[in-house]
Amino acid sequence: MKPIYSFLLFVTLCFILQVNAFGQRTVVSGTVRDAVTKETLPNVSVFFKDTQIGTQTDVNGKYLLVSPNPQNEISFNYVGYRSVLKNTVPSATQELDIAMVPDSRVLDEVVVVGGKKTKYRNKDNPAVELIRQVIAHKDENRIKSYNTASFRQYEKMLFSLSNVSDKFKNKRMFKNYQFLFQEQDSTLIGGKNLLPIYIREQLADHYLSKDPEKNKTIIIGEKQVQFDSRYIDNKGMKSYFDRMYQDIDIYKNNISVISNEFLSPIADGAPNFYKFFITDTIKTQKPEIIELSFTPRNTGDMLFEGKIYVTNDRHYAVTGASFGVNKNINLNFVRALKIDLNFEQNDKGKYSLSKSSLLADFGIGKTKGIGFTGERSVTFKNYRYDTVLPDTIFQGKSSVVLADAAKKDDKFWENNRLDTISKNQLKIYSNIDTLQNLPSFKRTMKIVTLLFAGYQNLGPYEIGPVNTFYSFNNVEGLRLRFGGRTTPELSKRYYFENYLAYGIKDEKWKFFLSGTYSLNNKSIYAFPQQYVRASFQRDTKIPGQELQFVQEDNFLLSFKRGVNDMLLYNDFYRLDYVKEFENHFSYNLGFKKWSQTPAGGLSYLNTNNQLVNRLTTSEVSVQLRYAPNEKFYQGKIYRVPIADRYPVFNIRYTAGLKGVLGGEYNYHNLLGSIDKRFYLSQLGYSDVTVEGSYIAGKVPFPLLDIHRANQTYAYQLNSYNLMNFLEFVSDHYVSINIDHNFNGFFFNKMPLIKKLKLREVFSFKALYGGLRNENNPNFQTGLYQLPVYENGSQRTYALGNTPYMEGSIGVANIFKLLRVDLVKRFSYLNNPEVSEWGIRARVKFDF
Questions:
Q1: Whether the Cβ atoms of residue 804 and residue 831 lie closer than 8 Å to each other
Q2: How many CB atoms lie within 10 A of CB 167?
Q3: How far apart are CA 221 and CA 244, in angstroms?
Q4: How far apart are CA 762 and CA 741, in angstroms?
Q5: Which Pfam family name is an example for this entry (predicted)?
Q6: What is the DSSP letter of 547?
Q7: Which range has the worst mean pLDDT, 296-305, 659-668, 768-777?
């Protein structure tokens, strides 16, 4: 929830297009409006006369046109309006607002014909034939078509609270915050006032090589609003925004926007999902530019709608694009989305991206109420192609931040910004500093942090998580817990975590203490990690329960189905060394001493029917992990991997040491897994995990693989949701787990239902394994008997020739937060206390 918490506080917008002028450049900017209605006009074609330098107005009717040479005239063209030709001042920066008059002659030619609506078809459609030519020529028009390329990039990201009414602005609680508000000027997001709260700038040089394929990014300067780290995680917030606002490459088949994959209008399969129409031809420049409008065949799917501009020559290059999403799209919380791409022709006659902007407006209501808006604009300059790039440029990491990048002064930014920035935008830096010094703001942030993050910050130490302070189970009864962890305010190299818990029914104390030391003078959560951790834990655990992203004593997970009386009292002594490398390969060397005592309905009986009160093992382990191209939501005291198309490989070897610190058994355990997300374009995406394990050696059932079960009512992605705790054990197994999200592909096509913005989910899990005779107490002496119920019926089994299988179909995005699955168990239905069907729910925040 922490990256989401950062996003909910800071997703925002504010953007004004201008540029610095110097030298002999002619710079013209302004706004184009309808002369009659005074409304702004988007997508108006703007060109310097007799040149190929042109652009289109954005969604607010604003334009910016820059020529390195003196220019005398500028033209404006728009379907349904009279063309406008205006004089400009050569080699100067100027503002020129235009009022375009509707062309009555064009309007007189519009004829409305009644009758049967013509069905849209791809066959013999000139617009589709044109888009297929664009698709066929994608590779030659991409930047990757050059042997080498380099360019400079300036990025500006702005976020604001938007659609703020005067009534809200003038509330008593905002009496001391009036200096933050700005006038809003955007027909896209509506409202009157903005409350800007975040700004970030970055200047970088990029280098690319085709053969061999290499890339390098050198960040020269970066600057952003810095919030008080006690309340706001600046790194985590930056990571979340980077995930939501990625680079827009129209030549890719899929474009990632707001953490979703959208099919590009020039993707290989675009004609099957989009409708295309030729809506204009611009003949005032060479080559001619054709305007293609496109719209989704189904307005609920993850598709764009808008216009692209392509050259009417043998290259069919994209020269510009302006698109957004349909109001009926199955996308949560997004009121409006607008993407603008501008391309400039280079000295080789091809078109290179000169500017891109992505604007999004978020809110609970579709149109009314306060929202968050944000825009990322990126300007590209100084393109150089097919030049010799020395190998030294690509040495080291693919992305490098210069040591003084965050220390650049205002003079540096004034001289090096590739795009201008308004005075109001620059005020955000000082305004936020002033805001954070207000006592009322500090009090508010403490409350918000506790509600969303679950921790109360006390400076060097923070208390939490609060949802674990109270829980209950059949053995401990009411369980009370209190604890917390240190923060970087105490030390960046030392990190401590602890808690103390007490069970009212079993009258036993539980506790945990860990200490971690960073060996690379960085936070233990910062990539790449290198640390040593020692810990001791005395607590309870349900055999076979493995939870994702939640504590086992979370209050909501206290509610469980079926018989749930098995528990272990555990003493864990652990020592771990973790080392990560820049290529995302890592290893973990560990030592663990584990003493376990059964409790409740669980007991350890040897072959002589004698109770065994305590089982002790000592083991060493080596874990290798490789996650190429992995990215994180990187925070101050957390790190969450971002699911992506790249696989994650894990392999772990564990050796039991008999006679070492009381260890009772020798054994070897080899475990391996592969995790990968598969994007299937309009059919959504699948998360797939393949896992396998083999245990060598004679060991009792508590040391076997106890397969992950779930007896809560929450849907667990990595557990078997209709398997009972400790129902199956194995000494060898393989498994596959598939969880697929269709993103509403079918629901979007159903009348009425599509208005609910529901999404279909499907899962399938299969587990195939077994128990060799040497580890089966039915065939071997010296082992513990497998657990039974009080009535004597078998409770724990070994898998046979039939795999354990379960699947589910579900509906996600209920109330934009809830997923509910109907789960079906397919095998081993005759085991006692088994449920063949079940309903499970999961809360998930997603766009």
A1: no
A2: 7
A3: 22
A4: 7
A5: CarbopepD_reg_2
A6: -
A7: 296-305
Q: Which of 117-131, 132-146, 205-219, 612-626 has the lowest mean pLDDT?
A: 117-131
**Distance between CA 285 and CA 54 in Å, rounded?**
9
Q: Which residue has the tokens 């078509």?
A: 145
R_g (Cα) of the chain, nearest Å = 31
Q: Which long-range contacts (CB under 8 A, 24 or more apart) does 221-226 make?
A: 221/402, 221/405, 221/406, 221/408, 221/412, 221/413, 221/416, 222/401, 222/405, 222/406, 223/406, 223/408, 223/413, 223/429, 224/198, 224/199, 224/200, 225/197, 225/198, 225/199, 225/200, 225/428, 225/429, 225/432
Q: Hey, what domains does the chain have and what are their CATH numbers?
A: 26-102 (2.60.40.1120), 126-437 (no CATH)
Phi, psi of 131 (to 5 degrees): -65, -30
More confident residue, 563 or 210: 210
Q: Residue 764 carries which side chain, given as an amino acid letter? A: F
Containing 197, the helix (H) or strand (E) segment is strand 193-209
d(CA 11, CA 7): 5
- Closest by CA to 771, choosing from 699, 841, 683, is 699
562 or 656, greater pLDDT: 656
**Residue 65 near residue 18, CB atoms below 8 Å:** no
What per-residue confidence (pLDDT) applies to 311? 94
Residue 113, pLDDT > 90, answer no
Is there a contact between 252 and 266 (Cβ–Cβ < 8 Å)? no
Buried b (16+ CB within 10 A) or exposed e, 629-666: ebbbbbbbbebbebebeebbebebebebbeeeeebbbb
At 769, list the tokens: 């394994």
Higher pLDDT, 423 or 827: 827
Contacts of 410 (CB under 8 A, 6+ apart): none
